[in-house]
Structures are given as C-alpha cells and as structure tokens.
Amino acid sequence: MTKNLPVIKRTKTTPLTIHPFRVAFFHSIFEVNTDWDKIAPADNIFLQRPYLQSLEQNPPVGMRFGYFMFYKKHEPVGIAIAQVQNFKADESLNNKEDDSNPCFFSTFARYLKGLVASKVDFNTIILGNVLLTGEHGFYFKDHIDRKLVNQIMDAAANIGVKQFEKKGIKTSLFLLKDFHEDKRPDNSIFQEKGFREFTIQPSMIMDLRPEWQSFEDYLGAMSSKYRVRAKRAMKKAAGLTKVEMNEAMIEANVDLLYELYSGIAENSGFNAVNLNKRYLLGLKRSLGDDFKLVAFYDGEQLIGYLTAIRNHSELEAHFLGFDKSRNRDVQIYLNILYELVQIGIDAGLEKIVFARTALAIKSSVGAVAHEMYCYMKHQNAFSNKFTGPILDYLKPTEEWEPRHPFK
C-alpha cells in the first residue's frame, strides 16, 4: 500500500473516514441531507434527488440502496450511490436453445455454461447504477484529483459492506461501473486491490450533428442504401399510431407495459434486474417532461413503446417493450430507434445514448460503439482468483460488424 492511498479509519468523533475525507452514509435518499443537492451535478439527472427517490420508491426486485456523502473538513466535495443486488447467473443468463446451431458441441457448451452458472449466486455491492449505462454512480468536485477519486471509491466499497452488514445484508462481490475510455482508471490502482477489469458490451452513442435541424436532414445525411432502408421501415409502420403517454395513460396501462417489457427482457442474453411494475410510472411522476414514453398502436392495440430520459444535453434511451410477433411485418424495433433519433433532434440535443445490446442495428442508425470498463472483486481472496475466468466464461457475446450509414 502506498503512502497516499486512502485508508478507512474509525474514531470516536468521525465514525467513518477515508483520509482526508469524512464520510456520511445513508440507507435511503429520503434520509440524505441537503448537502447532496449542493453537489449533485446539474448535467446529470441520474444523480439528482427526484430520479433517485423515484427509483427507491419503485425498486427492482430485491434491490437495496446506499448513499455516500464525502466531506473535506466541513465542505461537501463528493457523492456516490451504492446498490446491492443478488446475482444468480442461471436466472440472469438466457441459455435457450439456438436452433441455428444444433450440433453436439454447441449443445454441450450450453449445458456446461448452465452448470457453472448454477453455482454462481451472491449479493453484489455496486458503486454505480445497474439500470443505466455510463458514469452515473458518483461525482466529485473538479478540484478533487481523479486518481484520488478512484482510490476513494475502492475504500468506499468497504465502508458500504460494513454498513449493509449492520442491516443483515451480507455481500460477496464489489462491482464498480461504468468508466468511459477517457476516464478509465490507471489499472494499477485497482489491480493492487485485487479488482479484475472487464467489459460487457460497449455503449452505443450517437452524436447529433448541429446541421440536423429536422429528421429529414438526418435522412439526407445518409448514404442511399441506409436512407432507402429507413424509408422502407417507416413505410411498413405507416399504419401505426404514435402516442406520447401522459401520467394517467401510463397508469392505466401499467400491466400491459410491464408485459411487453417482460417479453423482451426474458429473451435477452443477460438480464441482471427485474423492473418494478410501477417504475416507469414513477419516473413520469418524478421527472415530468424530461421523461417520455411513446407508444405504438395498431388500431386500438398497443404493440410497443419506448422510454427516454432527457439528461441535460443528452437523450438516454431507457427501457422498452414490444410484441415480438409484430417485429417482422412493421419493423417496430427499428422504428423505435428512428423515433428516438427524431426526439433527440426535435429537442435540440447533442447526443443519444442507446446503451448496450443490439449493437449492429443501433450502428445502422448512426450510433458508434464506446467501450465501457467495469471492475469486480470477490471479498474472499481465494474466490477472487477465479472471478476473471468465470466472468469471461459467463458474459454474453454478440458477434457484429459496425455499420457506416452516413455519406
């Protein structure tokens, strides 16, 4: 351990400290004092109180929460969130039959992965937000050195473990997520603490060009191949009606919205959380116009929807749902992506964060892959030796080729 590495200390006057910082820990955002609001960045809605309150009131199944306030002397200088989530690999990983590759070795590989996954079951303390892609787990004032911040986060994880244990919640694993390439920690900082660096899938991010004043400008920037593809997809969906749902409409359709979401989540390659049925309704109540739910109707039948959150100058694509049986005839998923582009352009935003999964099709509408780095450590030193290999073995893979839709 180097001389400058933060160390957890306990004294009578300051029960929790990470030298030279004092730490306040809370189990509920409703208990956190107003210093949080002084620190929470104006350009990140996901660290602000309204979003965090909504999430806590409508939590994913089994999730627990923690909140850190960091002080230097009496000045609040940083905040961080923690989530505790049980991870059971055989329930989170989708190992359904793949009819495209029915050979013995493919079948045996699925069996072996299922066998290993059945042994992976533990509570994980996450510094970050598993419902989002990106750096939405902590924030420190600019004068706090980034390298020091990374060291603080490691020490904070240990504090979180002890605080959750007081509530009878034992955790086995640390997860720090997500770090963009330009903010990727010096790997030696986490390596000496036993963390394993890994990636899952890149975040698909689309820059909206200033000259795109309308959706037609966006289409005009495409090469003819992708422009024809876009118009063909939109023509297939021309008979659908798009409706932006208000709070009352979302409440009236809570069950159906959840059913459509579940149909997609259960067939994804990896599903770490199960949403609360009223999560989307809670977001609309808390975020108002910054939260959008656009529904697609075929006559009177709701067949799909998207949700998106305006995060300062960015549009964050959030959870969605649709009837998979209708995806071929109306290309509903591709039309959802185009609708997100239109929302972003109409709002004059700079970026759309499409998050992970479905990399190729998101690339085809203009999103570019940005690798996100995460760091994991098992609290048991012996078990930690196997964390890296097991992660590599279990994590979902998606073979894809980047598309280049613009001229």
Task: List descriptors.
407 residues, alpha+beta, Aminopeptidase, seven-stranded mixed sheet, 26% strand, disordered N terminus
* CA radius of gyration: 22 Å
Overall average residue pLDDT:
84
What count of helical segments does DSSP give?
Answer: 16
Under CATH at level 1, the class of the largest domain stands as: Alpha Beta
- Beta-strand portion reads 25-35%
Biggest sheet descriptor: 10 strands, mixed
Distance between the termini: 52 Å
CATH topology of the largest domain: Aminopeptidase
Helix content: 25-40%
Number of domains: 2
Shape: globular
Give the name of the CATH architecture of the largest domain. Answer: 3-Layer(aba) Sandwich
Helix/strand-derived class?
Answer: alpha+beta
Let me know the number of strands: 17
* Parts with pLDDT < 50 across at least 5 consecutive residues: 1-15, 95-109
